[in-house]
Amino acid sequence: xxxxxxxxxxxxxxxxxxxxxxxxxxxxxxxxxxxxxxxxxxxxxxxxxxxxxxxxxxxxxxxxxxxxxxxxxxxxxxxxxxxxxxxxxxxxxxxxxxxxxxxxxxxxxxxxxxxxxxxxxxxxxxxxxxxxxxxxxxxxxxxxxxxxxxxxxxxxxxxxxxxxxxxxxxxxxxxxxxxxxxxxxxxxxxxxxxxxxxxxxxxxxxxxxxxxxxxxxxxxxxxxxxxxxxxxxxxxxxxxxxxxxxxxxxxxxxxxxxxxxxxxxxxxxxxxxxxxxxxxxxxxxxxxxxxxxxxxxxxxxxxxxxxxxxxxxxxxx
Amino acid sequence: xxxxxxxxxxxxxxxxxxxxxxxxxxxxxxxxxxxxxxxxxxxxxxxxxxxxxxxxxxxxxxxxxxxxxxxxxxxxxxxxxxxxxxxxxxxxxxxxxxxxxxxxxxxxxxxxxxxxxxxxxxxxxxxxxxxxxxxxxxxxxxxxxxxxxxxxxxxxxxxxxxxxxxxxxxxxxxxxxxxxxxxxxxxxxxxxxxxxxxxxxxxxxxxxxxxxxxxxxxxxxxxxxxxxxxxxxxxxxxxxxxxxxxxxx
Lengths: 317, 249
Prior knowledge:
heterodimer; A: alpha/beta; Rossmann fold; 2 domains; seven-stranded parallel sheet; five-stranded parallel sheet; 25% helix; B: alpha/beta; nine-stranded mixed sheet; two-stranded antiparallel ribbon; globular
């Protein structure tokens, strides 16, 4: 029995959640092989081979793998799956897009977004926006599993030297054409892995007002999040959305500003270690999950918050 | 061009979910049910494409118990032309749903299949991708913008890093994000008219597909509750608590 882990990367480096997926894969079985599919991705291959938990790297390179389209990735992974009992990847947009296509080719009923490995066939996964946890047992011979990255620690990233086996790719799927990717470049920590997240909601009232959030986030070295209402209103771009249909974050500190706390938003942040809510509506549901609630007008509270932070001698980074 | 839209009946997004005491699932008796929210976006987009003269027919399909038909009626009330209800009891996994949809696609021969990117009950996010694999069609998942071009769609997808634009040849599957559009409300006259639109009923058992579950649900439980927090009087107290009590800044 062994596990095939699908590495997520950008052809240069591994995406950080690959390390969390490796941890989950090793909890299913110690014999973890990792497949990396891309083009001119030697650097990322080396980084993968350096993970001590990975016993073997399978590398597939071709021009049509450069942009990670599921239509190209799924058939080659389904072919490689012959030798494995489990196929594992992160349940972020990469894995969500790809894994079901592989599972259907293998005639396997996928288990999505697990938060705990009970045994090699039994897992816990949240359902109903995290309002219930289901323990499920997969009876398929081959199991396709995506893992919630924030529920598993990243694996050790150096010290290993797994052998790299090159495998030929399959034909290109020509009915889908990649055009472009608009990535939002930022010097801030990534939302999914940041230690502190400061999020704004509909209460921010405009995109310009998000600079109040930005200033506090800069001071704290924090990532910026948002509720769906704020993204829908155009205050901030979609990659900031926290919630059931956005990102799930588990920072040490989550500061929710002007966010009422719909269950769909809570689904994305309620596992955070410490939650702060700043809202002028004292009845807002966000206060029910907050460790520290401040009932105040955010337009007064945020500048004061920044001023108080400036008075501190040190701030943890 | 013909568009097939798949809709699912789920517990309404506003309902506070309660877990059954015996751990077999969540309470669904006397609970408000609605169409899965992003499925509403899928219906809206199909209807808009038809209104723009780029599609000739919009067919809404649902799979489930008798009452699942309500979701098809709602789609008909906002502009779908006719409906299909594949009747089945018990829970279906996304793999089974995609196999049943494959049979409907083979019968209806649509040019496009739309559905929501994820159902808000099981949160699986699988069906569209699985159907694409079974049909060997392109998949445009998490779509927040769709442009219909000659024989193609240009799609903007929402991904973790930002936005991705792809072009897919027709036939194709599109799974819709909540930001794709603003679903319209059905007017009373249209709700009345929708009652006269045809809805074909099929039995899942007649479609020759193995839909038996592969994943056993062992138990469903409530997630651990957070301890109640406190309200602070002012910003200074908040910062002091974060620094000295929670020790996170």
